[in-house]
Structures are given as structure tokens and as C-alpha cells.
Amino acid sequence: MKKERLAAIFEQIFDRTPQIAVFAPGRVNLIGEHTDYNDGFVLPVAIDRSIGIIASRNNHNYIRAYSVDFGEDTEFELDSIEKSEDLPWSNYLRGVLVEYQKRGEELEGMDLIISGDIPIGSGLSSSAAFEVAVGEAVREVARADDEPGANDRRSTGEVPLRRLLAAHQKHPAGTRHHSAHHQPSCPCGGARCHARPGVQRSR
Asked: Is residue 108 within 8 Å of 141, Cβ to Cβ?
């Protein structure tokens, strides 16, 4: 779904203009399926399907999110993030936020619209794309200007090498550090991983 359509849905539901738009792509492995976490080689490639999040801070201590593809919404306090049995797609959102909190980050309340076009359960990393989009949304909302759309961005995938090295040293290959493997999130690759997976960042 195009950014403009998601923005229109955001305005309809939350009665205001969103501040940011982020998108994260799905991926395929040309070589190395399941070797990345076993200290092996892998060569992934991003695809042209993604998951998008349109969001804005809400100046409260809670998260409100609507999945366009599932037609479901969720709301929870940042002080008490729990796993949802009824809305499994929302656990990816919750899990990423929990990981931020474990790092001592102070999160802002947000309103989010989520949608994507990565087929669920197809091995195209829809759940990981959702989590990447959530992480980017948190970061972009935190530094968003007051002017709506000022931080609209499309992911180019550029990550400083020092950050990649730091992440590798903290979580060497073979460890399961992905937020999807911690409560209250659910395992990547599980059915109904997200509001029809797919994410991309927009700049």
C-alpha cells in the first residue's frame, strides 16, 4: 500500500497528520539459508516488497497501532508491555519496544498505521522486516520535527560500520539476540507474523 494511502488512513483514524513514514524490505538468501546464526556465510538480497509504518508521537505513555491488513488494532501502556495472545502480529511491535527498554531507552507514546505486501510464512523475512520498521519508527518519531512529514524517509539500508561491528561483538554469530525471540514477541517465521508483512523506510 502506498504511503499516501497509509497517511490517509492515519488521518481518518487518529484525526491528525502523521509525522513520519518508514518502510523495510523483505529479503531472500542467495546462499546461506539458516547459516547466519551458526557462524556461517550468508548472502541476503532485499526484494521489492516491504512493510510500511506511518506514525506520530501522541504525547501520552501508550502505544496505539492499527494493522490495515488484519483490520485489527491494539493499545497498551509503555510501562506494562505484555505479550498478546489475541493479536499475535502485535507481539513483534511489543518485542521491539521491550528491547529498546532493556537498553535503557526512554520511549515516547506513538500512534501507528501498519501495512505491507510481503507474503506471510513465505521465507521472505516478513517478521524481521516488521521489526526493522518498528525500530526505525521509534527512532524517527524520537527525532521528528513538529512539521508533519519532515522525517518521511525510505530505507537505504545504510548502517555505520562501527554500529555493525559493535552489534557483532555484543551478539556474536550463534546467539539468538533477535527481539522476535524474546517475550513478549513471537518467533520469526511464525504464522501471522504481522499485518501482512513488508516494510521500507522513506526519506
From this structure: yes
